[in-house]
Amino acid sequence: MKHWPLRYKITGWAALTTGLALLTFGLGAAWNLYSEQIEAVDKQMTAEAGLFFAHRAELVKPEDKSPDWLVALSDPSASLFGFAIGRTGPGAELRFYPEDLEPFTTSWPPSIKFSTEKLGRRHLRIGVFVDGADTLLLAAKIGSVREIVRDLLGTYLLLLPVVLLVVAGGSWWMAGQALRPIDKITQAAASITADRLGERLPAPATLDEIGQHVVVLNHMFDRLQRSFEQATRFTADAAHELRTPLTIMRGQLEEALHASHGDAEQERLLVGLLEETSGLQKISDNLLLLARFDAGKASLDFSPIDLSALVQEACEDAELLAAAQRIKIKADIVPALRVKGDAVMLRRVALNLVDNAVKFNRADGRLELALHAAGDQAVFTIANTGTGIPPERQGSLFERFFRVGADRNRDAGGSGLGLNLCREIVTAHGGSITLSRSTEDWTEFRICLPALAS
Fold first, then answer.
1. Are 129 and 46 spatial neighbours (Cβ–Cβ below 8 Å)?
2. Which of 120, 162, 295, 318 is the most buried (most CB within 10 A)?
3. Helix (H, G, I), strand (E, B), or coil: what is residue 85?
4. 405 pLDDT band (50/70/90 cuts)?
5. What's the alpha-carbon Rg for the chain, to the nearest Å?
6. Element holding 97 (H helix, E strand)
7. 398 close to 423: Cβ distance less than 8 angstroms
8. Which residue, 355, 347, 348, 349, is CA-closest to 325?
9. Helix/strand/coil for 62
10. pLDDT single digits (tens) 274-313
11. What does DSSP say about strands 432-438 and 377-384: parallel, antiparallel, or unpaired?
12. 33 CB burial (10 A radius; 0-12, 13-18, 19+)
């Protein structure tokens, strides 16, 4: 279903409503004018009939068969077309003029007092009047009445498009004026992001409905900013406070492991605790870094770096990590491809992706890394065999604490923060990271970064 802009809808509905209203009014006015004109014709015929019945002894004589009765009956300038007169009863003589009226005399006397009939191409108004035993039928021409109504409708229909254009233009302008504050609100609201929560919508000039809406939205942004800052501060503080005890715990576990004196059961227990502590440290560090990104306080050291060398180092790390699973590594890296960025952070992204590609691979599988230039972009792709990501879950892939399969992530030791952190780092470098391909046995990630001119 197509969604039309509100300005188009307002203009369209205004023009449509006005058009229907004017058309209804025009048809009603034409019908009213026609009815009044017909009523005037009926009154005229009634007056002529009364005049005839009052002077019929003088106007109609038995021996007179002249068609000049019509002239004697009415003013020659009148709209009367003809008449028919006759008595009720068998053998009564029926006279009519002109002969065209014969079809209206076949059934005498007529039963309908007033009616509109068509005679050839002419429209007539028929009136039937009775006085005693005499019945008089008068026929009046109503061509002029129909012409007046037709001219009125023609003029009305001719002017209707002009009126609709004026209404549409006025509605378009008025809708633009009414929606301009909403456009400003939309643009201002779109610019408010996680790192710009301090911005607010422009203050309203008047406290009308839109102005009250702006005030309510600004209050809502105030509450969101406070909640976001509290959550970010809590995450950062919690992660920061955990670093020291976790470091102490790790040191003590390492000392205990060195002092275990060959006790296999104790060593197994200490190694397990040391791995869990290392995992907690990693989660704590990731949370702290994410909190800094959320607060816009992540410190990045931008400088020209050799991305080709960085990816080559990641490939070497992948060979070490993949040796136990006999995973085949394939690399296609163009030399001397440079970008401007933080080497430590970009190395963290590459290692995170390599680590995931090894963890979520299958034994005797494949892992492929590639780096090439595409226009002004450096494109780094990393792909691996293994279980793909279901289509219904791909939209949430870069969310925090995302897990495709809880059991698989628990076995691999994943926290669900790695890909989200990768996206934050890549975005801070002006790039993008996407899942470019995911099938049942192949998963591929693609990173694009602005490349430096060689």
1. yes
2. 318
3. strand
4. low
5. 48
6. strand 94-97
7. yes
8. 355
9. coil
10. 777 766 767 666 666 666 676 666 677 889 999 999 999 9
11. unpaired
12. middle
Indicate the pTM of the whole model.
Answer: 0.48
- For 390, residues 6+ apart whose C-beta sits below 8 A from its C-beta are 404
Cα distances (Å, whole numbers) of residue 228 to 99, 233, 306, 398:
98, 8, 37, 20
Under a CB-based contact definition with an 8 Å cutoff, are residues 123 and 146 in contact?
A: yes
Contact yes or no for 224/197 (Cβ under 8 A): yes
> Quick check: helix, strand or coil at residue 123?
strand
Q: What is the CATH number of domain 209-294?
A: 1.10.287.130
Query: Could you count the other beta carbons within 10 Å of the beta carbon of residue 140?
Result: 22
What distance lies between CA 130 and its chain's CA centroid?
70
Hey, where are the domains in the chain? Answer: 6-148, 209-294, 303-450
- Helix and strand numbers (H, E) in the chain are 10, 12
- Tell me the β-bridge partners of 118: 123
- CA nearest neighbour of 449 among 330, 323, 307, 352: 307
**Residues 21-62 pLDDT 10s:** 988 998 999 999 999 999 999 998 898 888 888 876 665 555
Least confident of 9-18, 119-128, 408-417: 408-417
The closest alpha carbon to 354, from 378, 380, 374, belongs to 380
In 191-262, alpha helices (H): 209-258
Residues 6+ apart with CB under 8 A from 41: 79, 125, 140, 142, 145
Q: Which residues 6+ apart lie within 8 Å of 444 measured at CB?
A: 381, 382, 383, 435, 436, 437, 438
Name 414's Cβ contacts closer than 8 Å, sequence gap at least 6: 356, 359, 403
Q: At 375, which amino acid appears?
A: G
Q: Are strands 328-333 and 366-374 parallel, antiparallel or unpaired?
A: parallel
Place of tokens 């002419």: 122
Q: Which of 238, 286, 248, 160 is nearest to 256 (CA)?
A: 248
Q: What is the CATH number of domain 6-148?
A: 3.30.450
Amino acid at 58: E
CB 368 within 8 A of CB 331: yes
On whether the 303-450 domain is CATH 3.30.565.10, my answer is: yes
B/e letters for 344-379, b = 16+ CB within 10 Å, e = fewer, are: ebbbbbbbbbbbbbbbbbeeebbbbbbbeeeeebbb
Contact 243, 281 (CB under 8 A): yes
371: amino acid identity, one letter: L
Contact 335, 372 (CB under 8 A): no
Tens of pLDDT, residues 143-156:
888 889 989 888 88
Place of tokens 């990641």: 314
